[in-house]
Write a structure and sequence with these properties.
2 helices; alpha+beta; about 35% helix; globular; single chain; about 100 residues
């Protein structure tokens, strides 16, 4: 499975940082904590790396459905969000292992 299939299944978002640099990121997943949605983004250049870091943002949409990303500035909230993503990715990793081993 090459990276070609990868882009079909995952949306990408281009982040623009305050210093004007941009990073194209894969939308890795969403979780909800205390009634708010959060998004995890994986920088495209790190997709093939073992140790890759994700960006976590609060996720919202404007009336046109365009994504609005907000910084998570509360450490307690951030901890909860990280915990939820850990659970999500553990589940996904398990499913992936099962698929691979059956073949």
């Amino acid at each position: 499975m090459g990276m070609d299939n990868y882009n079909d299944e995952h949306d990408t978002i281009t982040l623009t940082f305050e210093d004007g640099t941009e990073a194209e990121c894969l939308v890795w997943g969403f979780v909800e904590v205390d009634g708010k949605s959060y998004i995890s983004l994986l920088p495209m250049e790190q997709v093939d790396e073992e140790e890759s870091g994700c960006y976590l943002y609060q996720y919202d949409e404007d009336e046109d459905g365009a994504p609005i990303l907000g910084y998570i500035d509360d450490d307690a909230v951030l901890d909860k969000v990280v915990e939820e993503f850990d659970k999500l990715f553990e589940e996904e990793a398990d499913e992936y292992d099962e698929v691979v081993t059956e073949e």
